[in-house]
Recover the amino acids of this structure.
């Protein structure tokens, strides 16, 4: 069973700070790495995604950094806001053309005023 | 906007009952998925389907089955519910070129 290892399990950040969540994957055949955001009572929703042909992708305050040689990728949330408080999941597919995702165990982020 | 609708937000069932969880999507997606979500374990794939009447086992299919008679509808079946199947169940749909879209989940309690 392919795995995606996510850390930390929980994270507390002050408003305005940087939140960083890390993930590691096993297989260099994986070629799609999304991050999902989940608020209480809701299903996960796609936040941002990257493919291994680039090392970084930025959308607003959210950035994915990707290190292919280390098989790691991370989510950075700049200027974190209380509204960013949610659970974040990293995921990966299992190779080119695969639409089946394996998820990390999640990180509960709390941004305090 | 893509809408994935799960028929129940909360369900309470007794041990041994047969349970049906229903999911409908409105975007004509080929692929549909059932995950369960448990604290500290993340999302784990139970079953998925890439076409009508087709199904594939995910990582934790034991104790579950699925049905996909129409493209827009994917049902998860617990043949004989057990307490260890108490969980949040999430349905998702997508295509090969689109991200997964999730429903808001069904919280199932088996007593």
């Amino acid at each position: 069973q392919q795995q995606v290892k996510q850390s930390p399990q929980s994270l507390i950040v002050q408003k305005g700070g940087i939140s960083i969540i890390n993930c590691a994957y096993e297989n260099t055949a994986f070629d799609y790495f999304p991050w999902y955001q989940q608020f209480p009572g809701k299903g996960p929703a796609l936040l941002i995604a990257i493919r291994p042909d680039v090392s970084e992708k930025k959308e607003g305050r959210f950035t994915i950094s990707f290190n292919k040689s280390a098989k790691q990728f991370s989510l950075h949330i700049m200027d974190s806001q209380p509204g960013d408080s949610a659970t974040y999941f990293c995921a990966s597919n299992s190779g080119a053309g695969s639409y089946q995702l394996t998820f990390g165990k999640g990180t509960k982020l709390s941004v305090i005023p | 906007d893509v809408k994935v609708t799960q028929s129940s937000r909360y369900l309470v069932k007794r041990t041994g009952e047969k349970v049906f969880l229903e999911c409908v999507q409105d975007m004509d997606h080929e692929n549909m998925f059932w995950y369960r979500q448990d604290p500290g374990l993340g999302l784990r794939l139970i079953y998925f389907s890439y076409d009508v009447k087709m199904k594939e086992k995910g990582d934790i299919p034991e104790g579950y089955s699925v049905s996909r008679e129409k493209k827009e509808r994917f049902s998860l079946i617990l043949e004989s519910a057990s307490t260890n199947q108490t969980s949040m169940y999430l349905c998702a749909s997508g295509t090969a070129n689109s991200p997964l879209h999730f429903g808001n989940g069904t919280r199932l309690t088996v007593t």
Chain B touches chain A through 26 residues (CB under 8 Å). Chain B has a mean pLDDT of 94. Residues 68 and 74 of chain B are 5 Å apart (CA to CA).
